[in-house]
C-alpha cells in the first residue's frame, strides 16, 4: 500500500489518511514509512475567521495552482461536531470544479472533541499527500481555537484571509491570527470597503512582534474569488515566500519549529491514549480529587508517574 | 492570601488568578489550597459562534443573577493574539453596568498560543472564584476550537447561544457545539427570523446522539439582550438544570467527567513544560526527525521515556 501511496493512487491515499485518523498501533510502521518519504511539498497554511471566504478561496486557489501545472492536495480541518464527525467543507470544495482532476486531492478531517489528536492526524495527512508527490499541500483551518492556530502554523507559508465588513465580535477574534501571516489576503476585493480593510492590515504590519525575524516583507494581496481577481498574485506571493525561505536558509528554522511542535502534539496524543487505557487507576485518582484530598495537578503527576513504569 | 481569597477580597482574587495563569512552581500549594475550598458554585458554560451575541448576553445575565440576590464570577476566554495577549471581552463586559458591584467579578483570560495551558489555567480561575464564594461562575468561550469546546464542557450546565441570520460558514461551524447544550438560547429574539432559528434547533433536538443519558429535556430559550426579554427565563432554566442534576444524582457523573478532563489537561500541561525545560534532548531528537531517520512519534516516545527518569 505504501508503494501505491507513493505512486499517487487516490484510493491508497484516502485509506492511508483514514489510518492516520484512526491511529491504530498496527498502522504506525506504515505512517512512519510515509513520513520518511515526505518533505518535498510546499506546505501552505490557509486560515481566516468565519465569514472571511477562505473555503471559497481554497477552491479557487486549487484551480490556479493546477493552471501553473502543479498538483495540489488540500487538508480541510472541519469545524464539525465532536460527537458526530462530518465533512462539510470537503463536500463544498468538491463543487468548485476540482472534481475529477487527478492532480487534486481534497480531504476534510473531522474534529474529534476532547480526546482529539486532531493536530497529529492532520499533519500525518499532510505527510501522506506530500509523500504521494503533490507539489503543494494546503492546510485549511478556521482561524479560531488554539489547536487550529497551531495546526496552520505547521506550514512553510501561512496565508491569513480577512474580509471587509465583518462584525465587531469577528474583528476581535481576528486579532488572534493576524500576526502569524506570511501573506495577508483581503478577500471580496470587489467590495467598496475592501481598500479600508487592506489599509488597516498594512497599518498593523510593523506594529508589535511578528514571527518574522528575517527580512520578509509581508504582502497584502487583494483577491476576489468571484471575479477571479488576485488569485495569480496570491500564487506568485506564495512562490516568492518559498523562494525567500530557501534563499535565506530560513526554511531550516521553520522546519525545526514545525517538527518540535509535531513531537509535542504527538506526545500529548500518546499521553491521552495511555490515560484512556488506564481507566482503573484514573478512577481511583478521580475519587480522591472528588473528595478534594488531592488537586488535579497531583492526580496528573501520579498518572504520569505510572506512565513511567509502563 | 488564601484567607483573603476565601473572604472574597477582590485584589487577592485577581492576584490568585494571575498566579494560575503564570503557573509557577512556588504557587502550586496555594492553588491546591484554593481547589480544596472550591466545589460549591454552580458552574455555567456559555458559548456560541462569533456573532451570536454571547458576550452581550453574559453581561445581561450577570445583572439578572445579581437581581436574584446571588453573586457571579465571569471567566471570559479571550480569542486574542497568541503573541500579544489581550483582554478585549473583559473590557467590553465592564461597560455593561456591572462595574463597581462587589457581587460581580469579571476576568478575561488571554489565550497563549501553542504553549498554552489555557484549559488548566481557566479552570483554576474558576476554582478561585468558586472558593471566593461566588454563587455562580460563568465560563464564556467562543464556540469554535477544540480546547475552547473542552473548556466550556467543564461546566455543570452548558448554555449554547445561537443567533438568527448568520451566514453559511457560521452555520457550519455551529454544528460543533449544538450537541453539548444543556440549554439552548436563541438571541436577538426581537428579529423576525428568530422563530425559524428556534424551530431549527427544536427540530435538531432528539436527532442523533447528545450527552444527555438522563431524561433532561433541553429547553430552547429565546432572549433579547436589548429588550431585556427572556433573561429571567434563562436564569430559571439554569436553576432548573442544576436542580435536575442534583435530584437525579447526575451531578456526580458530571463532576467525575469534568475532573477526568481536568487531570488530562493538566498532564498535557506538565508534559509541555517538561519539554520546554529539556531543550537539549529535544534538539537532538529534532535533528534526527529532520533527517527523517525517525518519525515524530518515535521522538515523542523517547521524550516521554526521558520524562520517566526525571
Name the descriptors:
homodimer; 310 residues; alpha/beta; Rossmann fold; seven-stranded parallel sheet; 7 strands; 13% strand; globular
Sequence-ordered SSE layout with sheet pairings:
Two copies of one chain form a homodimer.
Chain A: H1 2-6, H2 10-22, H3 28-37, E1 42-48, H4 54-67, E2 72-78, H5 88-98, E3 104-110, H6 118-131, E4 136-142, H7 146-152, E5 157-162, H8 168-178, E6 183-186, H9 194-204, E7 220-222, H10 231-248, H11 250-276, H12 279-290, H13 296-309
Helix pairs in contact in A: 2-6, 3-6, 4-5, 4-10, 6-7, 12-13
Textual characterization of the structure:
- Two copies of one chain form a homodimer.
- Chain A has 310 residues and is of the alpha/beta class.
- Chain A has two domains: 2-248, Rossmann fold (3-Layer(aba) Sandwich), CATH 3.40.50.300; 277-309, no CATH class.
- Chain A has 13 helices and seven strands.
- Chain A has helices at residues 2-6, 10-22, 28-37, 54-67, 88-98, 118-131, 146-152, 168-178, 194-204, 231-248, 250-276, 279-290, 296-309; strands spanning 42-48, 72-78, 104-110, 136-142, 157-162, 183-186, 220-222.
- In chain A, strands 3-2-4-1-5-6-7 form a seven-stranded parallel β-sheet, sandwiched between helices.
- In chain A, α8 (168-178) links the parallel β5 (157-162) and β6 (183-186).
- In chain A, α4 runs parallel beside α5, α6 runs parallel beside α7 (146-152) and α12 (279-290) runs antiparallel to α13.
- Chain A starts with a helix and ends with a helix.
- The model of chain A is unreliable at 80-93 (pLDDT under 50).
Amino acid at each position: 500500500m505504501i508503494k501505491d501511496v507513493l505512486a499517487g493512487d487516490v484510493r491508497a491515499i484516502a485509506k492511508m489518511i483514514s489510518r492516520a485518523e484512526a491511529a491504530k498501533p498496527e498502522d504506525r510502521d506504515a505512517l512512519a514509512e510515509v513520513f520518511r518519504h515526505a518533505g518535498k511539498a510546499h506546505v501552505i497554511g490557509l486560515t481566516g475567521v468565519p465569514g472571511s471566504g477562505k473555503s471559497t478561496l481554497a477552491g479557487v486557489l486549487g484551480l490556479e495552482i493546477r493552471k501553473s501545472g502543479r498538483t495540489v492536495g488540500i487538508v480541510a480541518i472541519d469545524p464539525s461536531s465532536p460527537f458526530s464527525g462530518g465533512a462539510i467543507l470537503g463536500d463544498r470544495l468538491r463543487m468548485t470544479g476540482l472534481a475529477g482532476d487527478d492532480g487534486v486531492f481534497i480531504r476534510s478531517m473531522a474534529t474529534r472533541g476532547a480526546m482529539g489528536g486532531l493536530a497529529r492526524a492532520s499533519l500525518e495527512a499532510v505527510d501522506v499527500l506530500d509523500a504521494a508527490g503533490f507539489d503543494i499541500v494546503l492546510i485549511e483551518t478556521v482561524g479560531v481555537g488554539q489547536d487550529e492556530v497551531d495546526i496552520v502554523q505547521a506550514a512553510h507559508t501561512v496565508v491569513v484571509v480577512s474580509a471587509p465588513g465583518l462584525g465587531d465580535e469577528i474583528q476581535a477574534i481576528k486579532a488572534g491570527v493576524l500576526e502569524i501571516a506570511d501573506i495577508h489576503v483581503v478577500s471580496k476585493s470587489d467590495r467598496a470597503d475592501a481598500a479600508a480593510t487592506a489599509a488597516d492590515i498594512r497599518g498593523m504590519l510593523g506594529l508589535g512582534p511578528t514571527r518574522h525575524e528575517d527580512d520578509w516583507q509581508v504582502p497584502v494581496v487583494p483577491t476576489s474569488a468571484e471575479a477571479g481577481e488576485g488569485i495569480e498574485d496570491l500564487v506568485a506571493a506564495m512562490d516568492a515566500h518559498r523562494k525567500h525561505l530557501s534563499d535565506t536558509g530560513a526554511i531550516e528554522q521553520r522546519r525545526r519549529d514545525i517538527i518540535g511542535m509535531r513531537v509535542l502534539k504527538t506526545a500529548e496524543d500518546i499521553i491521552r491514549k495511555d490515560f484512556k487505557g488506564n481507566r482503573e487507576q484514573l478512577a481511583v485518582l478521580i475519587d480522591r480529587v472528588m473528595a478534594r484530598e488531592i488537586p488535579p495537578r497531583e492526580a496528573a503527576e501520579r498518572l504520569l508517574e505510572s506512565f513511567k513504569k509502563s
